[in-house]
């Protein structure tokens, strides 16, 4: 039976072989990861802000932003 450190080493070696061995693939992985991470953080912060400001936003006030219809 193999020790746990040796089994987890296979995972890291596989990750190295697939992603980090070639520079273009590694750079693509980092850029895509940064983009997706930024989107996730933006969505989380936006939903937190909207949850904390319900009823205080411009869209929530019914009389603002409405023009009288010109006939």
TrEMBL record:
**Looking at the keywords, is Transmembrane helix present?**
yes
Residues of the signal sequence? Answer: none
Query: Which keywords belong to this entry?
Result: Electron transport, Membrane, Mitochondrion, Mitochondrion inner membrane, Respiratory chain, Transmembrane, Transmembrane helix, Transport
State the membrane topology: Single-pass membrane protein
Which branch of life, at top level?
Answer: Eukaryota
The role this protein plays is:
Component of the ubiquinol-cytochrome c oxidoreductase, a multisubunit transmembrane complex that is part of the mitochondrial electron transport chain which drives oxidative phosphorylation. The complex plays an important role in the uptake of multiple carbon sources present in different host niches.
Entries under InterPro entries matching the protein: QCR9 (IPR008027), QCR9_sf (IPR036656)
Similarity section: Belongs to the UQCR10/QCR9 family.
Q: Which PANTHER family match?
A: CYTOCHROME B-C1 COMPLEX SUBUNIT 9 (PTHR12980:SF0), UBIQUINOL-CYTOCHROME C REDUCTASE COMPLEX, SUBUNIT X (PTHR12980)
Q: What is this protein called?
A: Complex III subunit 9
Cite the record's note on assembly.
Component of the ubiquinol-cytochrome c oxidoreductase (cytochrome b-c1 complex, complex III, CIII), a multisubunit enzyme composed of 3 respiratory subunits cytochrome b, cytochrome c1 and Rieske protein, 2 core protein subunits, and additional low-molecular weight protein subunits.
Keyword Membrane, does the record have it?
Answer: yes
What transmembrane ranges does the database entry give? none
Q: Where in the cell is it found?
A: Mitochondrion inner membrane
Pfam families the UniProt entry points to = UCR_UQCRX_QCR9 (PF05365)
Gene3D superfamilies, per this entry?
Cytochrome b-c1 complex subunit 9 (1.20.5.260)
